[in-house]
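Q: Please design a sequence for this.
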C-alpha cells in the first residue's frame, strides 16, 4: 500500500514539475468543468473557474470545456472560458482543436468566435489535416471562405500528401471544387 501511494505521489510531483497544471490531473474523477459545459450550466462553470478551476483541464480524450462549448455553439460559455485563459489552440488526443471540430460540425458562430480569438487557422492534427481542409471535405463553402479570409494557407498538404483541392474533390458538395478554384486554390 505504501509503495502505491509513494508511486502516485512521485507521478503527481513529476507531472507538476513538467509543467502540467493540477487541474489537468484527473485520474480518478470526471472533469466537472467539462460536464457543466456540456449541460450548458454557465453559472456552474463560472463558479468552478472562480474557485480556481483550470479552463484548460481535459476529459479522458484530451478535450477541454472550450471544445464542448464550441460544439454546442454556447458563445457565453466560450467567452467565459476565454476570460479564464482557455487555450483556443489546445489539441486533443487526435491533435484536433475546437476550431477543427467546429468546422467539421458546421458551427458557424463558434468558428467565427474562435477566429476572432486568434485560433490558429493552419493548425494541423495528427494526420496533417487543417480546418480549411476539413471545410473543403465537409463541403461548406461559407466556412471554407471564412477560413481562407482568416489566412488559411492554401499550399499545405496533409501527411498523406492531399491538398485542399483533393479534400474538396472528396466533398459531399459537388460544387466545392468550384468554390476552391474561385478562392484561388489550384491543383
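A: Design:
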Amino acid at each position: 500500500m505504501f509503495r502505491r501511494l509513494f508511486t502516485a505521489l512521485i507521478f503527481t510531483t513529476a507531472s507538476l514539475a513538467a509543467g502540467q497544471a493540477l487541474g489537468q490531473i484527473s485520474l480518478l474523477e470526471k472533469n466537472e468543468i467539462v460536464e457543466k459545459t456540456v449541460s450548458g450550466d454557465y453559472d456552474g462553470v463560472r463558479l468552478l473557474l472562480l474557485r480556481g478551476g483550470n479552463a484548460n483541464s481535459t476529459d479522458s480524450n484530451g478535450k477541454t470545456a472550450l471544445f464542448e462549448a464550441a460544439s454546442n455553439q454556447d458563445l457565453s460559455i466560450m467567452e467565459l472560458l476565454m476570460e479564464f485563459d482557455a487555450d483556443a489552440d489546445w489539441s486533443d488526443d487526435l491533435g484536433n482543436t475546437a476550431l477543427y471540430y467546429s468546422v467539421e460540425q458546421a458551427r458557424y458562430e463558434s468558428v467565427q468566435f474562435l477566429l476572432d480569438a486568434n485560433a490558429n487557422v493552419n493548425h494541423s492534427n495528427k494526420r496533417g489535416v487543417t480546418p480549411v481542409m476539413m471545410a473543403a471535405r465537409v463541403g461548406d463553402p461559407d466556412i471554407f471562405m471564412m477560413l481562407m479570409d482568416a489566412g488559411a494557407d492554401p499550399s499545405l498538404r496533409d501527411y498523406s500528401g492531399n491538398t485542399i483541392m483533393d479534400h474538396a474533390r472528396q466533398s459531399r458538395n459537388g460544387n466545392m471544387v468550384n468554390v476552391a478554384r474561385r478562392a484561388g486554390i489550384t491543383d
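Q: Thanks. Anything notable?
A: The mean pLDDT is 87. The two ends are 62 Å apart (CA to CA).
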